[in-house]
Amino acid sequence: MKIRVNVMLKEGVLDPQGKAIGHAFEVLGFSNVGEVRVGKTIELEVDTADREAAAAQGEAMARELLANLVIEDFAVEVAE
Amino acid sequence: MKIRVNVMLKEGVLDPQGKAIGHAFEVLGFSNVGEVRVGKTIELEVDTADREAAAAQGEAMARELLANLVIEDFAVEVAE
Amino acid sequence: MKAGIVLFPGTNRERDMAQALRLVSGRDPVMLWHRDTSLPQLDLVVLPGGFSFGDYLRSGAMGAHSPLMREIRSFAERGGHVLGVCNGFQILTEAQLLPGALLRNAGMRFLAQEHFLRVETADSPFTRDWSKGDVFRAPLAHGDGNYTAAPDVLDRLEAEDRVAFRYVSAQGQDDAADRRCNPNGSQRSIAGVLSENRRVCGLMPHPENLVDPDLGATDGVPLFSSLVKSLVA
Amino acid sequence: MSMTVNAELAARFGLSAEEYQKVLDIMGRVPSLTELGIFSVMWSEHCSYKSSRVHLKTLPTKAPWVIHGPGENAGVVDIGEGLAAVFKMESHNHPSFIEPYQGAATGVGGILRDVFTMGARPVANLNALRFGDPSLPVTRRVIDGVVRGIGGYGNCVGVPTVGGEINFHPAYNGNPLVNAMTVGIARTDKIFLSAAAGIGNPVVYVGSKTGRDGIHGATMSSAEFDEHAASKRPTVQVGDPFTEKLLIEACLELMATDAIVAIQDMGAAGLTSSAVEMAGKGGVGIELDLDKVPQRETGMTAYEMMLSESQERMLMVLKPERTETARTIFEKWDLDFAVVGVLTDTARITVRHNGRTEADIPLAPLADEAPLYHRPLVHTPPPGRIGIVADPVGIEHALLTLLACPDLASRAWVWNQYDSGVGGQTSRRPGAADAAIVRVEGTRRGLAMTTDCTPRYCQADAHAGGAQAVAEAWRNITATGALPLAVTDNLNFGNPEKPEIMGQFADAVRGMGEACRALDFPVVSGNVSLYNQTSHPNGISTPILPTPAIGAIGVIEDVTKAVGLAMPEGCELVLIGE
Ligand SMILES: Nc1ncnc2c1ncn2[C@@H]1O[C@H](COP(=O)(O)OP(=O)(O)O)[C@@H](O)[C@H]1O
């Protein structure tokens, strides 16, 4: 089963990457762009046929490794 | 309108980050994990009410800056 | 040799590069600002190391879109000589003035260590003061130096003798699968490449940090003396 | 948490009942929340040095080559040829335990700002690190993050990391130490200080925008670290080395003009401490209009803005006619620039927000009546005699064991993540000599630098340990052929309210002072980090080992004469000393 974990900085935490990209858009002439936030996507295969088990495992993997809960939030999606 | 651009390394390009995470999962005891791929998510606001215009702009921003088409693919989503 | 060094916000090895050019060529380079919209009369444009725009999206990606890069592209198209070191190499690939791309180091860590390079061709304005097969020391200082390109691109680079430098062991052995020889995991151990007309060169290591006998090493001198020979008519 | 100002809230902000009573006396009324916040950070251990000041005063700080000793953002010493070395060490211990990468990274950022604030271009970073038991997973996670964070920040700003030290001991399990040191070079006639002057002069904010980062970091870092830390957890500050690099270049560019009257970085307790210190030192009043402060988030209160610890920000007083010159420079570097206030003749700090006065405090009593404690102390009993040690294993085995132990094993895996060559002046990188050597650009001179401390010596005998740390730093510099010049320190200890800890502190400082006097090696800057303790589930709280980390610099007139560790072939080994 395919899992996708999205990791984003928490609301209120400074996002230097987003800030720099937002600035680059201005330079490139995209003048109508508001706040930019950058996150990570981790896609992986887990060997199980059970959607719920897959979701639970994705959650466990995010907590243990993929997200730094001090500054990041995450969301787990299980693909169809 | 809120746009999300997902950027992933192309199929066939070796992903050092994904490989390192895959290895870490093994160490942590998640033994049923297949290939891991890591990508970036860029979320941003564009000041337009037109979904199609927003999608087209997201595509342009990805081509010009957010993705390096030599090694990366991208997908644009416009949020509801 | 009249050289210009491009400054992006976040560039940090411009002083090192200026010092090397001054020591070897006897002439002060001019400093160029990324927002400039014209280039002065120059023999050589150098993109130095650093973290242009923080390297926050991809190393070199935002720098490649600076206004001055348009001028540098047409300078290169007119046959001008361009050297990109470290972040400069990354910018040149992002701007597609050189083929390929630089991924995260295979070990996922920043590498800041002395290492060895082998000169793969002496047939270029950047390498003529070396002989093919020479091995020299050069410091590495990068997080994204893992060179990659499609297999047909790599084949073509080799067929056209456009691989300038390879990572090797102190004894000069290359082994792409062995991190002791090829520390960042680059494909085919490639550390530096040349453009089709051989006048644009990019490499990850820092020869500019090994040119001063007072600091104990001169391994990087031939890069600069080659350029002086080639560009001082 | 309820934000009604009373003794209970004051206690939660770290003010004792007595201290709160002093606040009431000074104000003649119940302070506003913002005012209470200002008092609590200014009177925190971190900003006021209330437990340590009486001891620090005994350290020698003068020598003919000292230009500025303690009291400025960093120490300044003359290194010849019209140049000065500007240097200091500072801790970021608690943030580095909460979030190792960002904690260490922002520690490096903070100490860099202390140095370039004075007009110096930073030329080298060093660090002194202590971690817990290396076999614990948490230690591995912390050390990995700290090392990456130091590298991530230093490599990006382009300041070489040239030296440091690492020790391990279970006493640091829940409280690692991350001490960062920066050395910069300035012209002796171009040193910038923080005392504000000129009634009516504009107060200018530059750098990054203000967010809700690390509110109450200064009081947090002075509070004992316990298992409730998670719930007190402030929003972690994220470092932005790219912005710092722009800030360095923009400030140095502005410093080449004559626009700046005074300048101060926003460190712990950001806007509060920078505004209070600049105005206080200059004996003037300051009025801030928070509506003008560049803000990253919406709806921030005056309290939040005054206490925010957002990184990469500076406060300056400019000559009014040069404000536009300054604005042009900061805009060129894509940095925020805003006139946020003005110097007044009221000798008060007033803070306005949304048309209301949120704080109005007389500056003199805020500084003069800051608490100062002669805390009770007991000395550590002298260690017993060790006697003759039996040798049960044989010298070869003993040697191999020593070489393999984490405290002595190669640190190459650490310094191979730090760019030690950027700048093109590094003459001796980590591992090459007893002290690192960086050439002074444009001269043949070199600066030698080192950090040293052996905490287990200090544990056994704080007085001898303090002296030994100074002596080791002096020897490391001397061994390269350089002349030792001056010292910065970072005094990391446990809870000063415990007499045994206070005894360690006092004795270590006394030992340091004696060694510094004997070696003509003055202390020109430093930092104190107390309350380095870990609470265990059973309610017991244990201190770290006493760790007075010493950073030191020296000068060698010709870098090509410097001596390293590598032994050339055919030389003889000579032992000097007992
Ligand atoms: N945290 C660190 N950062 C950078 N360099 C370090 C660090 N720790 C140790 N080093 C370097 O490693 C070398 C050996 O360190 P150490 O064993 O403490 O040496 P010494 O006992 O001679 O001071 C020194 O050059 C030192 O500067």
Quick gist of this model?
The complex is a heterotetramer, with 2 copies of chain A (80 residues), 1 copy of chain C (233 residues) and 1 copy of chain D (578 residues). Chain A is α+β, with helices and mostly antiparallel strands.
Written description of the protein model:
The complex is a heterotetramer, with 2 copies of chain A (80 residues), 1 copy of chain C (233 residues) and 1 copy of chain D (578 residues). Helices cover 36% and strands 36% of the residues of chain A. By secondary structure, chain A is an alpha+beta fold. Chain A has one domain (2-79): Phosphoribosylformylglycinamidine synthase subunit PurS (Mth169, Chain: A), CATH 3.30.1280. In chain A, strands 2-1-3 form a 3-stranded antiparallel beta sheet. The radius of gyration of chain A is 16 Å and the shape is elongated. Chain C has helices spanning 14-25, 67-77, 87-94, 151-159, 221-231, and strands spanning 3-7, 30-33, 44-47, 81-85, 101-103, 111-119, 135-142, 146-148, 163-168, 190-194, 200-203. Chain C has a single domain (3-104, 146-165, 191-232), classed as Class I glutamine amidotransferase (GATase) domain (Rossmann fold). Chain C has 233 residues and is α/β, with parallel strands linked by helices. In chain C, α1 (14-25) links the parallel β1 and β2 (30-33). Chain D is an alpha+beta fold. Chain D has 20 helices and 21 strands. In chain D, strands 8-10-7-11-9-12-13 form a 7-stranded mixed beta sheet. Chain D has a 6-stranded mixed beta sheet with strand order 1-2-3-6-4-5. In chain D, strands 14-15-16-21-17-18 form a 6-stranded mixed beta sheet. In chain D, a hairpin with a 6-residue loop joins β1 (66-68) and β2. In chain D, α7 (100-116) runs parallel beside α11 and α11 (241-255) runs antiparallel to α14 (323-332). Chain D is globular and about 80 Å long. The termini of chain D are far apart. The model of chain D is unreliable at 224-234 (pLDDT under 50). The interface between C and D is medium-sized, with 30 and 34 residues. The complex binds adenosine-5'-diphosphate (ADP). The site of adenosine-5'-diphosphate has 15 residues of chain D, from β4, β5 and α17. Chains A, B: It catalyses: N(2)-formyl-N(1)-(5-phospho-beta-D-ribosyl)glycinamide + L-glutamine + ATP + H2O = 2-formamido-N(1)-(5-O-phospho-beta-D-ribosyl)acetamidine + L-glutamate + ADP + phosphate + H(+). Chains A, B: It comes from Swaminathania salitolerans. Chains A, B: One of its GO terms (cellular component) is cytoplasm.
